[in-house]
Amino acid sequence: MLPQDKSKAEMGPVERALDLLAGICVTVAGVGLVTLIVIFGWLVWGRYVMNDTPTWVEQLALILVVWITFLGAAAGVWTQSHLSIDFVREMMPPALRVPLHWLALAGMLVFGVVLAWQGAVLAESLWPRRVPMLGITEGIRALPMAICGALTAVFTLYQAVALATGRD
């Protein structure tokens, strides 16, 4: 049973905490998306009505797109709504389904760990640089990559434990 199919009363404390983390990711990504729409409205207004293009919009939009994408992807791992081809696994004979499920979880875990590690390395290396026109650290662009990787690893570990204990 997927986490979103359970009521809060049916969830254990760990599952509720992970569900809350995924909910925070979706909320931040949603606020980022609304902000993106508003600043592009401002860009169009400034460019075509006021004949004075706000130059900071492009840089902020690039940062927002990265945050929206990575946080949405992390939440998608939790809800198991990410891009996957599990229908192929489900069409296989039962003897192959479980090993393929474990293989998919192992791949996701490795991917999440590498993404978290390399995202942290990238964010650290970019931290001293500044984003033009915004003056904030360039590392803010790589930070969601590390966060997404860590959350992907944690969510996948939980799913592996659920599979091992028969709760999946």
Explain what this protein looks like in three dimensions:
With 168 residues, the protein is an all-alpha fold. The protein has one domain. It has helices at residues 13-49, 56-79, 86-91, 94-126, 143-164. Helix 1 (13-49) runs antiparallel to helix 2, helix 1 (13-49) runs antiparallel to helix 5 and helix 4 (94-126) packs antiparallel against helix 5 (143-164).
Strand-helix topology:
Layout: H1 13-49, H2 56-79, H3 86-91, H4 94-126, H5 143-164
Give helix and strand order, one letter per element, not per position: HHHHH
Shape: elongated
Average pLDDT metric: 90
* N/C terminus separation: 6 Å
Integer count of domains: 1
Computed structural class: mainly alpha
Biggest beta sheet summary: none
Question: Helix segment count?
Answer: 5
How many strand elements?
A: 0
Keywords, separated by commas or semicolons:
5 helices
Task: Summarize this structure briefly.
The chain is mainly α and 168 residues long. Helix content is 73%, strand content 0%.
